[in-house]
C-alpha cells in the first residue's frame, strides 16, 4: 500500500435487539404524544470505531474486549425504568423503586438521542485504555428502539 495515502478503517460492534435489553421510559415533555406515557423497547446499541492504522493483528478493535462495556450498558438500561431528572413525576417513580416495583435510573434527559450521547461518553470511559493509545477513535453510537426508529450521537469531528 502507498504509505503517503491516508487510510481509514472502520469496525463496528452491536449489542442487538436479540439481547433483550428491555428498557422503559417516557418523554414527559411530549405532552401531545403517546410518548409521554411509560413505554419500552428492547434497545440495541451500535458502535462505530475508526482508525488510520490497524493493530498488529490487523484489527481496528478487538471484538472480544467489549465485556465491560456490555456490562455497563446492561446495568444502565436492562430491565430499567429510565426517568429524566426534571420529570414532574420523579418522586412517584422513586416510590416505585423504593417499593421494589421498578429499577429506576435517573438521567438528565431521556430519549434515544440522549441515550446515544450517554453511552458514547460511557464507552469512551470504559474503553479508555484502547482509545488513549491514540490509534482508535470512537466515531458514533446509534441507539435503536426497533427497526424503524433510531438516533445517533457523533463524536467531535475535528
TrEMBL record:
Pathway annotation: Purine metabolism; 7-cyano-7-deazaguanine biosynthesis
Name of a matching Pfam family: PTPS
Coiled coil: none
Catalytic activity: 7,8-dihydroneopterin 3'-triphosphate + H2O = 6-carboxy-5,6,7,8-tetrahydropterin + triphosphate + acetaldehyde + 2 H(+)
The EC number(s) this enzyme carries: 4.1.2.50
SUPFAM superfamilies: Tetrahydrobiopterin biosynthesis enzymes-like (SSF55620)
Enzyme class name: lyase
Molecular-function GO term, any one: 6-carboxytetrahydropterin synthase activity
Family named by the database record: Belongs to the PTPS family. QueD subfamily.
Designated name of the protein: 6-carboxy-5,6,7,8-tetrahydropterin synthase
Lineage: Bacteria, Pseudomonadati, Pseudomonadota, Gammaproteobacteria, Moraxellales
Amino acid at each position: 500500500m502507498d504509505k503517503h495515502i491516508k487510510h481509514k478503517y472502520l469496525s463496528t460492534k452491536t449489542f442487538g435487539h436479540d439481547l433483550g435489553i428491555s428498557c422503559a421510559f417516557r418523554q414527559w415533555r411530549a405532552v401531545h404524544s403517546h410518548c409521554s406515557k411509560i413505554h419500552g423497547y428492547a434497545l440495541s446499541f451500535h458502535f462505530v470505531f475508526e482508525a488510520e492504522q490497524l493493530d498488529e493483528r490487523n484489527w481496528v478493535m478487538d471484538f472480544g474486549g467489549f465485556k465491560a462495556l456490555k456490562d455497563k450498558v446492561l446495568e444502565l438500561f436492562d430491565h430499567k425504568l429510565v426517568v429524566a431528572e426534571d420529570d414532574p413525576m420523579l418522586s412517584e417513580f422513586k416510590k416505585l423503586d423504593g417499593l421494589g416495583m421498578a429499577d429506576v435510573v435517573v438521567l438528565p434527559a431521556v430519549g434515544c438521542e440522549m441515550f446515544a450521547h450517554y453511552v458514547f461518553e460511557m464507552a469512551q470511559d470504559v474503553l479508555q485504555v484502547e482509545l488513549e493509545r491514540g490509534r482508535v477513535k470512537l466515531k458514533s453510537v446509534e441507539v435503536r428502539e426497533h427497526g424503524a426508529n433510531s438516533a445517533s450521537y457523533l463524536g467531535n469531528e475535528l
